[in-house]
Amino acid sequence: MPGRTIVTMMKDEAPFLLHWIAHHRIIGFDRIVVFTNDCSDGTDALLDRLEQMGEVTHHRNKVPDGGKAQPLALRRAMKLPEVTDSEWLIALDVDEYLSIRTGAGQLDDLLATAPQADGFALTWRMMGANGHSDWTDMPVTEAYTRGAPDLFRKGWGVKTLFQPFDNMKLGIHRPTIKGSDKSALHAREWVNGSAKPMTHGFMEGMWRSSLATLGYAHAEIAHFATQSAEAFLRRAARGNVNAKPDKYDATYYGIFNRNETEQRQLLRYAEPTRAHVAGYLADPTLSDLYETALAWHARARDALRASPDYARRMAALEEASQTPFDALDAVLFPQPLAPQGKETVAQMQAQGVPDREIARAVAQSVRRMEHMRDAEDAQELLAKGVTPDYGTWR
Q1: Rounded to 5°, angle at Cα 312 from 306 and 315
Q2: How far apart are CA 28 and CA 87, in angstroms?
Q3: GO cellular-component terms in the record (predicted)?
Q4: HSE (CB half, 13 Å, CA atoms) of 301?
Q5: Is the pTM of this model over 0.90?
Q6: What angle separates helix 43-52 from helix 14-27, to the nearest 10 degrees?
Protein backbone atom coordinates (compact mmCIF):
# COMPACT_ATOMS: atom_id res chain seq x y z
CA MET A 1 0.00 0.00 0.00
CA PRO A 2 1.50 3.37 -0.98
CA GLY A 3 2.22 5.43 2.08
CA ARG A 4 2.20 9.09 0.98
CA THR A 5 -0.94 10.39 -0.67
CA ILE A 6 -2.27 13.61 -2.18
CA VAL A 7 -6.00 14.17 -2.64
CA THR A 8 -6.84 16.80 -5.24
CA MET A 9 -9.73 18.14 -7.31
CA MET A 10 -9.37 19.18 -10.96
CA LYS A 11 -11.43 20.79 -13.68
CA ASP A 12 -9.91 21.87 -17.00
CA GLU A 13 -6.33 21.78 -15.68
CA ALA A 14 -4.66 20.17 -18.70
CA PRO A 15 -1.88 22.79 -19.18
CA PHE A 16 -0.74 22.32 -15.58
CA LEU A 17 -1.47 18.80 -14.42
CA LEU A 18 1.54 16.91 -15.86
CA HIS A 19 4.04 19.30 -14.30
CA TRP A 20 2.20 19.35 -10.97
CA ILE A 21 1.98 15.55 -10.81
CA ALA A 22 5.62 15.15 -11.82
CA HIS A 23 6.80 17.60 -9.14
CA HIS A 24 4.99 15.85 -6.33
CA ARG A 25 6.01 12.39 -7.49
CA ILE A 26 9.64 13.54 -7.60
CA ILE A 27 9.63 14.83 -4.03
CA GLY A 28 8.24 11.62 -2.60
CA PHE A 29 4.48 11.16 -2.97
CA ASP A 30 3.64 7.69 -4.25
CA ARG A 31 -0.12 8.07 -4.70
CA ILE A 32 -2.13 10.94 -6.14
CA VAL A 33 -5.92 10.58 -5.93
CA VAL A 34 -7.71 12.92 -8.33
CA PHE A 35 -11.40 13.83 -8.48
CA THR A 36 -12.61 15.58 -11.64
CA ASN A 37 -15.93 17.17 -12.52
CA ASP A 38 -17.42 18.59 -15.71
CA CYS A 39 -14.14 18.75 -17.65
CA SER A 40 -14.33 20.30 -21.12
CA ASP A 41 -10.64 20.30 -22.06
CA GLY A 42 -9.81 16.60 -21.78
CA THR A 43 -8.30 16.69 -18.28
CA ASP A 44 -10.37 13.63 -17.37
CA ALA A 45 -9.13 11.69 -20.41
CA LEU A 46 -5.52 12.60 -19.57
CA LEU A 47 -6.03 11.32 -16.03
CA ASP A 48 -7.60 8.11 -17.29
CA ARG A 49 -4.44 7.46 -19.30
CA LEU A 50 -2.19 8.43 -16.38
CA GLU A 51 -4.10 5.97 -14.24
CA GLN A 52 -3.44 3.25 -16.80
CA MET A 53 0.24 4.21 -16.58
CA GLY A 54 0.18 3.85 -12.79
CA GLU A 55 0.71 7.53 -12.02
CA VAL A 56 -2.62 8.53 -10.44
CA THR A 57 -5.94 7.18 -9.25
CA HIS A 58 -8.79 8.97 -11.02
CA HIS A 59 -12.40 9.32 -9.88
CA ARG A 60 -15.13 11.23 -11.69
CA ASN A 61 -16.88 13.41 -9.15
CA LYS A 62 -20.48 13.73 -10.30
CA VAL A 63 -21.87 16.90 -8.76
CA PRO A 64 -25.65 17.38 -8.53
CA ASP A 65 -27.22 20.70 -9.47
CA GLY A 66 -26.41 23.22 -6.80
CA GLY A 67 -23.75 20.97 -5.28
CA LYS A 68 -20.18 21.95 -4.38
CA ALA A 69 -17.47 19.89 -6.02
CA GLN A 70 -14.80 20.20 -3.34
CA PRO A 71 -16.75 19.18 -0.21
CA LEU A 72 -18.36 16.35 -2.15
CA ALA A 73 -14.98 15.04 -3.34
CA LEU A 74 -13.58 15.16 0.19
CA ARG A 75 -16.53 13.16 1.54
CA ARG A 76 -16.04 10.58 -1.19
CA ALA A 77 -12.31 10.45 -0.53
CA MET A 78 -13.04 9.52 3.08
CA LYS A 79 -14.56 6.26 1.82
CA LEU A 80 -11.46 5.21 -0.14
CA PRO A 81 -8.94 2.86 1.50
CA GLU A 82 -6.15 4.31 -0.64
CA VAL A 83 -6.81 7.59 1.18
CA THR A 84 -7.67 6.53 4.73
CA ASP A 85 -4.96 3.84 4.91
CA SER A 86 -2.19 6.25 3.91
CA GLU A 87 0.81 6.78 6.15
CA TRP A 88 0.84 10.50 5.25
CA LEU A 89 -1.94 12.48 3.57
CA ILE A 90 -2.46 16.03 2.28
CA ALA A 91 -5.14 17.79 0.23
CA LEU A 92 -3.65 20.10 -2.42
CA ASP A 93 -4.94 22.07 -5.39
CA VAL A 94 -3.14 22.18 -8.73
CA ASP A 95 -2.01 25.75 -8.11
CA GLU A 96 -0.29 24.65 -4.88
CA TYR A 97 3.21 23.16 -4.80
CA LEU A 98 4.84 21.72 -1.69
CA SER A 99 8.23 23.42 -1.51
CA ILE A 100 10.75 21.74 0.82
CA ARG A 101 13.69 23.94 1.73
CA THR A 102 15.65 21.54 3.89
CA GLY A 103 18.11 18.85 2.78
CA ALA A 104 17.68 17.61 -0.77
CA GLY A 105 14.12 18.95 -0.92
CA GLN A 106 12.49 15.56 -0.45
CA LEU A 107 9.54 14.56 1.69
CA ASP A 108 11.88 12.43 3.80
CA ASP A 109 13.94 15.54 4.54
CA LEU A 110 10.88 17.38 5.82
CA LEU A 111 9.71 14.45 7.95
CA ALA A 112 13.16 14.17 9.49
CA THR A 113 12.90 17.71 10.91
CA ALA A 114 10.30 16.50 13.42
CA PRO A 115 10.40 12.69 13.75
CA GLN A 116 7.90 12.80 16.61
CA ALA A 117 5.29 14.73 14.65
CA ASP A 118 2.20 13.25 13.06
CA GLY A 119 1.26 16.44 11.23
CA PHE A 120 2.86 19.43 9.51
CA ALA A 121 0.76 22.61 9.13
CA LEU A 122 2.50 24.30 6.18
CA THR A 123 1.80 27.95 5.42
CA TRP A 124 1.04 29.34 1.99
CA ARG A 125 3.47 31.56 0.15
CA MET A 126 1.33 33.62 -2.22
CA MET A 127 3.09 33.83 -5.59
CA GLY A 128 2.57 36.70 -8.03
CA ALA A 129 2.51 37.31 -11.77
CA ASN A 130 6.24 38.13 -11.87
CA GLY A 131 5.73 40.68 -14.64
CA HIS A 132 3.66 38.39 -16.88
CA SER A 133 0.43 39.84 -18.22
CA ASP A 134 -0.30 37.48 -21.12
CA TRP A 135 -0.50 33.71 -20.98
CA THR A 136 2.81 31.85 -20.85
CA ASP A 137 3.47 28.19 -21.63
CA MET A 138 6.34 28.05 -19.14
CA PRO A 139 5.79 25.80 -16.11
CA VAL A 140 4.38 27.91 -13.30
CA THR A 141 7.32 27.23 -10.99
CA GLU A 142 9.68 28.70 -13.59
CA ALA A 143 7.48 31.55 -14.85
CA TYR A 144 6.43 32.92 -11.46
CA THR A 145 9.38 33.34 -9.13
CA ARG A 146 8.30 36.32 -7.04
CA GLY A 147 5.94 36.19 -4.12
CA ALA A 148 4.73 37.69 -0.87
CA PRO A 149 6.99 38.49 2.06
CA ASP A 150 6.77 36.29 5.12
CA LEU A 151 4.56 38.77 6.97
CA PHE A 152 1.78 38.90 4.38
CA ARG A 153 -0.89 37.89 6.89
CA LYS A 154 -3.69 37.65 4.31
CA GLY A 155 -1.75 34.74 2.80
CA TRP A 156 -1.25 32.68 5.95
CA GLY A 157 -3.61 29.86 5.10
CA VAL A 158 -2.14 26.39 5.67
CA LYS A 159 -2.24 22.99 4.07
CA THR A 160 -1.65 20.08 6.44
CA LEU A 161 0.41 16.99 5.79
CA PHE A 162 -0.73 14.50 8.41
CA GLN A 163 -1.06 10.90 9.47
CA PRO A 164 -4.71 9.79 9.25
CA PHE A 165 -6.45 9.06 12.55
CA ASP A 166 -9.71 7.56 13.80
CA ASN A 167 -12.88 9.60 13.21
CA MET A 168 -11.06 12.19 11.13
CA LYS A 169 -12.98 14.46 8.81
CA LEU A 170 -11.06 15.63 5.76
CA GLY A 171 -10.87 19.34 5.03
CA ILE A 172 -9.15 21.26 2.27
CA HIS A 173 -6.80 23.01 4.72
CA ARG A 174 -6.57 20.50 7.57
CA PRO A 175 -8.51 17.58 8.97
CA THR A 176 -10.85 17.95 11.90
CA ILE A 177 -12.59 15.26 13.90
CA LYS A 178 -16.14 13.98 13.79
CA GLY A 179 -18.32 14.81 16.78
CA SER A 180 -17.82 17.27 19.60
CA ASP A 181 -15.11 15.39 21.52
CA LYS A 182 -11.82 16.92 20.33
CA SER A 183 -9.57 15.14 22.81
CA ALA A 184 -8.14 12.84 20.13
CA LEU A 185 -7.42 15.84 17.94
CA HIS A 186 -5.60 17.64 20.74
CA ALA A 187 -3.51 14.52 21.28
CA ARG A 188 -2.01 14.88 17.80
CA GLU A 189 1.52 16.27 17.57
CA TRP A 190 1.45 18.81 14.74
CA VAL A 191 4.26 21.19 13.92
CA ASN A 192 4.67 24.09 11.51
CA GLY A 193 7.06 24.53 8.58
CA SER A 194 9.87 25.23 11.04
CA ALA A 195 9.20 22.00 13.00
CA LYS A 196 7.82 23.99 15.96
CA PRO A 197 4.60 22.86 17.67
CA MET A 198 1.18 24.13 16.73
CA THR A 199 -1.02 25.44 19.52
CA HIS A 200 -4.20 24.33 21.27
CA GLY A 201 -6.10 27.11 19.53
CA PHE A 202 -4.99 25.93 16.11
CA MET A 203 -5.88 22.31 16.88
CA GLU A 204 -9.40 23.42 17.83
CA GLY A 205 -10.08 24.04 14.16
CA MET A 206 -8.08 26.99 12.81
CA TRP A 207 -6.86 26.90 9.20
CA ARG A 208 -4.47 29.87 9.27
CA SER A 209 -1.16 30.52 10.95
CA SER A 210 -0.79 33.21 13.58
CA LEU A 211 2.32 35.34 14.00
CA ALA A 212 3.42 32.93 16.73
CA THR A 213 2.82 29.72 14.75
CA LEU A 214 4.16 30.99 11.42
CA GLY A 215 7.15 28.98 10.21
CA TYR A 216 8.83 28.81 6.80
CA ALA A 217 12.27 27.45 7.72
CA HIS A 218 11.88 23.93 6.31
CA ALA A 219 8.83 23.95 4.05
CA GLU A 220 5.93 25.99 2.69
CA ILE A 221 3.14 25.73 0.14
CA ALA A 222 3.82 27.88 -2.92
CA HIS A 223 0.36 29.07 -3.93
CA PHE A 224 0.12 30.26 -7.55
CA ALA A 225 -3.37 31.69 -7.07
CA THR A 226 -3.15 34.53 -9.58
CA GLN A 227 -0.47 33.95 -12.26
CA SER A 228 -0.66 36.25 -15.30
CA ALA A 229 -3.69 38.46 -15.81
CA GLU A 230 -4.76 36.40 -18.83
CA ALA A 231 -4.35 33.11 -16.99
CA PHE A 232 -6.43 34.55 -14.14
CA LEU A 233 -9.27 35.44 -16.51
CA ARG A 234 -9.28 31.90 -17.81
CA ARG A 235 -9.38 30.60 -14.25
CA ALA A 236 -12.36 32.81 -13.48
CA ALA A 237 -14.17 31.44 -16.53
CA ARG A 238 -13.74 27.90 -15.21
CA GLY A 239 -15.48 28.66 -11.90
CA ASN A 240 -14.43 27.36 -8.49
CA VAL A 241 -14.89 24.22 -6.47
CA ASN A 242 -17.08 25.82 -3.81
CA ALA A 243 -19.47 27.54 -6.24
CA LYS A 244 -18.71 31.00 -4.82
CA PRO A 245 -19.97 33.62 -7.29
CA ASP A 246 -17.47 36.22 -8.51
CA LYS A 247 -14.67 34.86 -6.31
CA TYR A 248 -11.97 35.57 -8.87
CA ASP A 249 -12.41 39.29 -9.41
CA ALA A 250 -10.00 42.22 -9.68
CA THR A 251 -9.96 42.70 -5.91
CA TYR A 252 -8.82 39.11 -5.38
CA TYR A 253 -6.14 39.60 -8.01
CA GLY A 254 -4.92 42.87 -6.55
CA ILE A 255 -4.60 41.42 -3.05
CA PHE A 256 -2.96 38.10 -3.87
CA ASN A 257 -0.78 39.06 -6.84
CA ARG A 258 2.20 39.67 -4.59
CA ASN A 259 5.68 40.16 -6.03
CA GLU A 260 7.63 41.85 -3.24
CA THR A 261 10.24 39.12 -2.72
CA GLU A 262 12.32 36.78 -4.86
CA GLN A 263 11.20 33.18 -4.28
CA ARG A 264 13.26 30.88 -6.46
CA GLN A 265 13.49 27.77 -4.28
CA LEU A 266 11.25 25.69 -6.55
CA LEU A 267 13.74 26.11 -9.40
CA ARG A 268 15.83 23.36 -7.79
CA TYR A 269 13.24 20.94 -9.20
CA ALA A 270 12.93 22.50 -12.68
CA GLU A 271 15.21 20.18 -14.65
CA PRO A 272 14.11 16.87 -13.09
CA THR A 273 10.45 17.89 -13.34
CA ARG A 274 10.77 18.75 -17.03
CA ALA A 275 12.50 15.40 -17.60
CA HIS A 276 9.73 13.59 -15.76
CA VAL A 277 7.08 15.31 -17.90
CA ALA A 278 9.01 14.36 -21.04
CA GLY A 279 8.90 10.78 -19.83
CA TYR A 280 5.12 10.95 -19.55
CA LEU A 281 4.81 12.41 -23.04
CA ALA A 282 6.91 9.61 -24.51
CA ASP A 283 3.67 7.65 -24.29
CA PRO A 284 1.98 8.31 -27.68
CA THR A 285 -1.56 8.04 -26.32
CA LEU A 286 -0.92 10.52 -23.53
CA SER A 287 0.94 12.85 -25.89
CA ASP A 288 -1.99 12.93 -28.33
CA LEU A 289 -4.46 13.63 -25.52
CA TYR A 290 -2.22 16.39 -24.19
CA GLU A 291 -1.86 18.12 -27.56
CA THR A 292 -5.63 17.95 -28.07
CA ALA A 293 -6.17 19.50 -24.65
CA LEU A 294 -3.66 22.29 -25.29
CA ALA A 295 -5.39 23.05 -28.59
CA TRP A 296 -8.69 23.37 -26.69
CA HIS A 297 -7.09 25.90 -24.33
CA ALA A 298 -5.57 27.84 -27.25
CA ARG A 299 -9.05 28.19 -28.78
CA ALA A 300 -10.46 29.27 -25.41
CA ARG A 301 -7.79 31.97 -25.11
CA ASP A 302 -8.53 33.17 -28.64
CA ALA A 303 -12.21 33.46 -27.72
CA LEU A 304 -11.30 35.32 -24.55
CA ARG A 305 -9.15 37.81 -26.47
CA ALA A 306 -11.93 38.37 -29.00
CA SER A 307 -14.54 39.14 -26.33
CA PRO A 308 -15.73 42.76 -26.27
CA ASP A 309 -14.78 43.31 -22.61
CA TYR A 310 -11.34 41.67 -22.77
CA ALA A 311 -9.35 44.91 -22.75
CA ARG A 312 -11.43 46.37 -19.92
CA ARG A 313 -11.05 43.26 -17.75
CA MET A 314 -7.32 43.03 -18.36
CA ALA A 315 -6.93 46.72 -17.51
CA ALA A 316 -8.92 46.23 -14.29
CA LEU A 317 -6.56 43.45 -13.19
CA GLU A 318 -3.49 45.48 -14.03
CA GLU A 319 -4.85 48.50 -12.14
CA ALA A 320 -5.68 46.38 -9.10
CA SER A 321 -2.15 44.99 -9.16
CA GLN A 322 -0.73 48.45 -8.58
CA THR A 323 -1.99 48.48 -4.99
CA PRO A 324 1.15 48.53 -2.83
CA PHE A 325 1.63 46.07 -0.02
CA ASP A 326 1.17 48.69 2.70
CA ALA A 327 -2.12 49.95 1.23
CA LEU A 328 -4.05 46.68 1.22
CA ASP A 329 -6.02 47.59 4.34
CA ALA A 330 -7.88 50.13 2.20
CA VAL A 331 -9.08 47.41 -0.21
CA LEU A 332 -12.50 46.02 0.67
CA PHE A 333 -12.43 42.24 0.46
CA PRO A 334 -15.44 40.77 2.28
CA GLN A 335 -15.09 37.23 0.89
CA PRO A 336 -13.28 35.76 3.92
CA LEU A 337 -15.64 37.37 6.44
CA ALA A 338 -18.21 35.43 8.42
CA PRO A 339 -21.88 35.96 7.43
CA GLN A 340 -22.36 38.51 10.23
CA GLY A 341 -19.36 40.49 9.00
CA LYS A 342 -20.62 40.46 5.42
CA GLU A 343 -24.01 41.69 6.64
CA THR A 344 -22.34 44.56 8.49
CA VAL A 345 -20.41 45.51 5.35
CA ALA A 346 -23.63 45.48 3.31
CA GLN A 347 -25.35 47.71 5.88
CA MET A 348 -22.48 50.22 5.83
CA GLN A 349 -22.56 50.29 2.03
CA ALA A 350 -26.32 50.88 2.10
CA GLN A 351 -25.68 53.84 4.40
CA GLY A 352 -23.30 55.32 1.83
CA VAL A 353 -20.07 54.70 3.71
CA PRO A 354 -17.21 54.68 1.14
CA ASP A 355 -15.65 51.28 0.53
CA ARG A 356 -12.20 52.51 1.60
CA GLU A 357 -13.56 53.52 5.02
CA ILE A 358 -15.36 50.19 5.37
CA ALA A 359 -12.19 48.33 4.41
CA ARG A 360 -10.15 50.15 7.06
CA ALA A 361 -12.81 49.48 9.70
CA VAL A 362 -12.84 45.79 8.79
CA ALA A 363 -9.04 45.67 8.86
CA GLN A 364 -8.93 47.25 12.33
CA SER A 365 -11.53 44.83 13.68
CA VAL A 366 -9.80 41.81 12.20
CA ARG A 367 -6.41 43.04 13.41
CA ARG A 368 -7.61 43.22 17.00
CA MET A 369 -8.74 39.59 16.88
CA GLU A 370 -5.55 38.50 15.15
CA HIS A 371 -3.36 40.21 17.75
CA MET A 372 -5.27 38.50 20.55
CA ARG A 373 -4.67 35.14 18.92
CA ASP A 374 -1.01 35.99 18.31
CA ALA A 375 -0.55 36.74 22.01
CA GLU A 376 -2.41 33.62 23.18
CA ASP A 377 -0.42 31.37 20.87
CA ALA A 378 2.89 32.98 21.87
CA GLN A 379 2.10 32.63 25.56
CA GLU A 380 1.37 28.93 25.13
CA LEU A 381 4.54 28.29 23.13
CA LEU A 382 6.78 30.29 25.46
CA ALA A 383 5.39 28.31 28.42
CA LYS A 384 6.64 25.19 26.65
CA GLY A 385 10.06 26.71 26.11
CA VAL A 386 9.45 27.25 22.39
CA THR A 387 10.43 30.59 20.85
CA PRO A 388 8.31 31.54 17.80
CA ASP A 389 10.16 32.42 14.60
CA TYR A 390 8.39 35.77 14.27
CA GLY A 391 7.47 38.59 16.64
CA THR A 392 9.11 40.03 19.72
CA TRP A 393 7.71 38.22 22.73
CA ARG A 394 8.36 38.92 26.39
Answers
A1: 115
A2: 12
A3: cytoplasm; membrane
A4: 16
A5: yes
A6: 30
What are the pLDDT tens digits along the chain (394 aa)? 569 999 999 999 999 999 999 999 999 999 999 999 999 999 999 999 999 999 999 999 998 888 889 999 999 999 999 999 999 999 999 999 999 999 999 999 999 999 999 999 999 999 999 999 999 999 999 999 999 999 999 999 999 999 999 999 999 999 999 888 888 899 999 999 999 999 999 999 999 999 999 999 999 999 999 999 999 999 888 755 444 556 789 999 999 999 999 999 999 999 999 999 999 999 999 999 999 999 999 999 999 999 999 999 999 999 999 999 999 999 999 888 889 999 999 999 999 999 999 999 999 999 999 999 999 999 999 999 999 999 998 6
Residues 379, 381, 385: CA angle, nearest 5 degrees: 110
Q: Return the amino acid letter for 301.
A: R
Give the largest CA-CA distance in the chain: 62
Distance CA 138, CA 148 (A): 21
**HEC assignment per residue over the chain:** CCCEEEEEEECCCHHHHHHHHHHHHHHCCCEEEEEECCCCCCHHHHHHHHHHCCCCEEEECCCCCCCCHHHHHHHHHCCCHHHHCCCEEEECCCCEEEEECCCCCCHHHHHHCCCCCCEEEEEEEEECCCCCCCCCCCCHHHHCCEECCCCCHHHCEEEEEECCCCCEECCCCCCEECCCCCHHHHCCCEEECCCCECCHHHHCCCCECCCCCCCCCCEEEEECCCCCHHHHHHHHHHCCCCCCCCCCCHHHHHHHCCCCEECCHHHHHHHHHHHHHHHHHCCHHHHHHHHHHHHHHHHHHHHHHHCCCHHHHHHHHHHHCCCCHHHHHHCCCCCCCCHHHHHHHHHHHHCCCCHHHHHHHHHHHHHHHHHHHHHHHHHHHHHCCCCCCCCCCC
